[in-house]
Amino acid sequence: MSFKKVFVKRKKSIKHYLWILKNEIIKKDKNLKKGDICSVYEEDRFIGNGLFNWESKIAVRIFSFQDEDFDVPLIKERILKAYEYRKTVLPEEEDFRLVYGESDLLTGTVIDKYQNHFVVQIYSYGVEIRKEKIYQALKELFPVKSIFEKNDFRLRELEKLERYDRLVYGELEDLVMISENGVKLYVDIKNGQKTGYFFDHRITRRKVRELAKNKKVLDVFCYTGSFSINAALGGAKETLGIDGNQQAIELAKKNVELNKVDKICHFIVGNAFNELRNLYKDKKEFDLIILDPPPFLKSRKELSGAVRGYKDINLWAMKLLKPGGILVTSTCSHHFYWQDFLDTLNAAAEDAKRNFRIIDRTTQGPDHPILLSMPETEYLRTFFLEVF
User: Fold this and answer.
1) In Å, how far are 84, 98, 108, 329 from 104, measured between CA atoms?
2) CA angle at residue 97 from 94 to 102, to 5 degrees?
3) What CA–CA distances, in Å, run from 96 to 90, 153, 198, 216, 368?
4) What CATH number labels 4-64?
5) pLDDT tens-digit map of 307-339
6) Is 332 in contact with 200 (CB distance < 8 Å)?
7) What are the strands of the beta sheet with 117-122, ordered from one edge?
8) Hey, which of 68, 271, 287, 326 has its CA 20 to 30 A from 214?
9) DSSP conformation letters of 301-318
10) Residue 26 has what pLDDT?
11) Are 14 and 373 a contacting pair, CB within 8 Å?
């Protein structure tokens, strides 16, 4: 095929690294426009074909290591391979992240599958102007009931894309029922956070269920109750969920009723930091605490502020644990690396005057695969800490 060319001198010498930064480009063909497909070369060596956007720091997003077009056949092949992989690693599931951007060689694209309802997020200009090809591929591969674009998120601004949410195909139910690890859950695609549900914690939720027997559980930033429900199904004596979103708590109550654990699971609406302090003031104690806060930083420049936030929230949780209790604590900030998190937890434990051992750690589930060549594809980090 004949695409315009871009010549680069890469700062990362990793062959399968999928991003070309703007300052790595040393020459490009004239008339190469925003959104165009281009062929990338380093000296005389062909690297791959990508989507060009000179207005972004990531000037080229490689979508293939072959000389091929970003067309419906390629997209169908990528989605089908992604689906087959999910069915291999999650054979009992039909609800999952179907496409995880670069990890599935569909750069700039996230697709979550809720039965036959599909939620799409696009954060590449080159994909945005070709998104109808993605929708065509989905409709040719699956009995699609709806396709909903959840594009009201910050990453689109980096590509100079407008933010919006909208239904682009079919009819969307008010609540879609899904299943994860045998747990039934209602998802509000239109009004929920992110794409409606957080599939990335499926491994951690399963482990929480295994740990919860006969325990009093605190679920902080509980959203729609998935950790609380898993704990209850694992035999927890009682659970208390805290979230600042009233709408999420109302859906959490529906979810616990759906799983017949409404006598075990309870919820309050409130600011997590304040509620933890109030629980400590009231001398409450818990056997198992789950902390799943939103990201506290978007870049390494915000690290110092994020450390303060993560330290504070974990400090109060640590104080609320009974002897022998377990803290399951997470960060979904990509730029808050494992060692950053570990150092922050150690500082919190010192201030709490408590000693912990690491009994486990988890990351995002297998439907969010991490590429060895792309550390950016890892963002979720969880420690299981036992006080002794």
Assistant:
1) 11, 9, 10, 28
2) 140
3) 9, 20, 9, 29, 9
4) 2.30.130.10
5) 999 999 999 999 999 999 999 999 999 999 999
6) yes
7) 96-100, 109-114, 117-122, 146-150, 165-170
8) 271
9) GGHHHHHHHHHHHHHHHH
10) 96
11) yes
Is 38 annotated as catalytic?
no
Question: Hey, what CATH topology would domain 72-172 get?
Answer: Transcription Regulator spoIIAA (3.30.750)
CB environment 215-250: b (16+ within 10 A), e (fewer): bbbbbbbbbbbbbbbbbbbbebebbbbbbebeebbe
What does the block give as tokens for 228? 């609380």
Domain ranges in the chain with CATH number 2.30.130.10: 4-64
Task: Give the pLDDT score at 301.
Answer: 86
- Considering the entire predicted model, what is its pTM? 0.95
Q: Under 8 Å CB-to-CB from 282, ≥6 apart: which residues?
A: none
Residues pairing with 186 in the sheet? 177
Q: Cα(61)–Cα(267) distance, rounded to whole angstroms?
A: 43
Tokens of 156: 């689109």
Q: Of 38, 222, 265, 332, which is the active-site residue?
A: 332
Q: Where in the chain is the domain with CATH 3.30.750.80?
A: 72-172
* 125-181 confidence digits (pLDDT tens): 999 999 999 999 999 999 999 999 999 998 999 899 999 999 999 999 999 999 999
